[in-house]
Amino acid sequence: MNSRPALPVLYMVIPCYNEEDVLPITAPLFREKLESLARQQLIHPDSRILLVNDGSRDRTWEIIRDLSEKDLHFQGISQSRNRGHQNAVLAGLMESRKLCDVTISIDCDGQDDLNAMDEMLKAYHEGSDVVYGVRSSRKTDSLFKRMTAQSFYRFMRRMGAEVVYNHADYRLLSSRVLSAFADFHEVNLFLRGLVPLIGFRSTSVYYERRERLAGESHYPLKRMIGLAFDGITSLSVKPIRMITYTGLIISVISFIGIIWAVVTALMGSAVEGWASIACVVCFMGGIQSMFMGIIGEYIGKIYLETKGRPRYIISEHTSGMPDSPGTDPRP
Ligand code: UDP
Ligand code: MG
Questions:
Q1: Less Cβ around it within 10 Å: N or C end of the chain?
Q2: In the 3-class helix/strand/coil scheme, how is 17-34 assigned residue by residue?
């Protein structure tokens, strides 16, 4: 059994991209939560809220700087440009892991219920190193969002990417999990698929997900499909195996077809069939291009991995943050 501090220092890691509308509403809520957790003796009073600006084009960074000047519980780092949600969360986690005992990552739009943090920290005190925040229902999502999100999880699983159903990026990770995670160097980041691979004792807490308090979602259907593809191809080789099986099945069917064609030709009743041949050729052309595309996805991933570019670059940080190395720790 690992020894845990009685009052762990918590860092809430919050990615923010063009969130000038919602941040002034949610920042005080995060602050209140931090205070209430400290009052309940679940965390150390030196705990902090780390806002990660993901290259916003609006006033988000000014708001973060302002918050940190007025209240030392707020700290901020700014990515040199927009790198996407996953990289923003990673930047926050990696930069805070040496400063704290435990982190909780959460979106800044107020959709995820802050009260679930109490349960998460209780689970941490009871020995869990990973606590997943899982949505108990999607009542507030539109029918379309609900259906696409559900097919997303189902499809991911079928393709061999282990993901926790209805869990996004609201989760508690202890600093020892993060130290182990620092050795995962992949550039193709899909955190919710990677965290289960790190291992350690994990549990889930359930909460109702609300609507965004202000502003707009950055995840329309197109980006969700992109995320699903990236997730699958960075976690599983099942699609390639499926290509092999499909090829095998088509070969067997073709072989039977060839025997049938030869036999009917020998019996003098060859089928006239330019149209059917054309159909088969086109069909096979389509299948082959699709399969090459899937294999190409993997080659693209290898291409990006071999470059080993930093996954985040920090251009600025608020005065509360210690001098950061500025980039991703690499071997
Ligand atoms: N986000 C980010 N970089 C991006 C897009 C989004 O840091 O390129 C942040 C955003 O500010 C929010 C979180 O990621 O805190 C989730 O985004 P959003 O609420 O738009 O997604 P949804 O909840 O609709 O899936
Ligand atoms: Mg959201």
A1: N
A2: CCCCCCHHHHHHHHHHHH
Give the C-alpha separation, 235 to 190, whole Å: 8
Neighbours of 195 (CB within 10 A): 23
Domain membership of residue 250 as a residue range: 238-307
Residue 217 and residue 19 in contact, taking contact as beta carbons nearer than 8 Å:
no
- Tens of pLDDT, residue by residue over 227-264, are 778 888 888 888 888 888 888 888 888 888 888 878 88
Q: Is the CB of 140 inside a 6 Å radius of any atom of ligand 1?
A: no
**Same domain membership, residue 41 and residue 187:** yes
Give the separation between CA 331 and CA 210, rounded to whole angstroms: 40
The verdict on residue 5 lying in a domain is no
Residue nearest to atom 24 of ligand 1 (CA): 217
pTM, rounded to two decimals: 0.81
**Ligand 2: distance of its center to the CA of 241 in Å?**
35
| Same-domain pairing of 278 and 180 | no
**Claim to verify: residue 95 and residue 139 sit in the same structural domain:** yes
The residue whose CA is least distant from atom 8 of ligand 1 is 84
Atom of ligand 1 nearest to the CA of 52: 7
Domain-embedded: residue 153 = no
Segments of the chain with pLDDT less than 50: none
Mutation test residue for ligand 1: of 109, 145, 311, the one with most atoms within 8 Å of CB: 109
| Same domain assignment for residues 303 and 173 | no
Looking at the fold, whether 174 and 77 belong to one and the same domain comes out as yes
